[in-house]
Structures are given as structure tokens and as C-alpha cells.
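Hi everyone,

Forwarding the result from last night's run.
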Amino acid sequence: MRILAVTDIHASKKGEKTIRHFIKTEEPDILTISGDITHFGPAEYASRLLNSIKIRTVAVNGNCDPPEVAAAIEESRATMIVGRTIDIDGIVFRGLGYPIFNEHLAAGGTLAGGGAAVGALDVLISHAPAYGFNDFVGGHAGDRAILDFVNRTKPKLVLSGHIHEARGIMENDDTIFINPGPVKDGFAAVVEIAQSTVNANLLSLP
């Protein structure tokens, strides 16, 4: 599966241009959006953008997406994956929005809304990063509950955003952590994921 991973659109024209450019040039099977589609709304922006994307899209909300934006994602062509587990062509995805549900993570590792058993996970899509991974901005700003969840479920791939300055690819215990960088600034990542391998590259709009 070929994934185009983006985050932090913040209702920007450059973000839209970047997404369309890399859909055309990278020919992904799926687009993932790790939150902050808008900059505190409006919901109509999220609806318009998501309904204009013709490839399969899965998304989570971010801290700059008010509740009506989360509802707009649900009602769009995209799949809202917060608190859900979905299998796409044999690759299992889970989503965490913002804020995360710490009580659900602490209670055996399940997310709000249920889903597959802990461990049955290939890709975790989260707005906030796990503590210590793509989260440094004068100090580590990631979430320890997400790190705990990752350590217990051991996904092959974690896609996050939120910390604009922490763009990068990291690896730990066979998990690849990617912050593509804010797509509003022309950044994205492309990932080839199979049952046993993950290959990723950061992208920048020329």
C-alpha cells in the first residue's frame, strides 16, 4: 500500500495545492490526514476539501478543529478514524484525535468506540506525537499516553503532526514514527507499507 501522509493543513491554499500535487505525482492508494484540517473552523472548509479529494482518505481531528469540524469529517467522503479500527486491504489502521482519550488508553489499550484487540495494528494516525518522537520544540512536547499505547500495540507506523517544528522520521523497536511537517508549508511524506516492511520518504513541494 502506498500512503500519502499529511498533517496541519490549517485551511491553507498552499496545503490544498500540496495535497493535489503529491496525489498526482506520487499516485498513492490512500491519503492520511493527521489533524488540524482547519484553523478553528469553519466546518464548511473541511467538508469542501475532503469531498474534493478523489482517492480514499482517512482523517483525524486536531486541536485547531472544533467539534463541528469533526462532525464534518464524519459526513464527508473521508473516513473519520478517531476511536476506530479499520482494515484497508489487509493493513489495520487506528486513529487518535485531539484530545486523546487517556482513560481508554489506560484501560487495556482500547480506544473510544472499540475496535480490534490490542496488537492488531499496523498504522496509528494521531494528531499529537508520542512522547520522545518527532515532538521536540525546546523540550519534548509529545504525549506519554500515546507512547504507552504504541509500546503495547507495537504498530509498524505512527503518523502524527501538531509539532510543526519536529518534521522527521524516527525508528524505535521496529516502529517508524513520521511527522511529515505541516502541509500548509508544502510538506508531506510518502510511505510504502506491506505486511513486513515500511519504507518512507519526506516530501517537499518544489
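The mean pLDDT is 90.

Cheers,
N.
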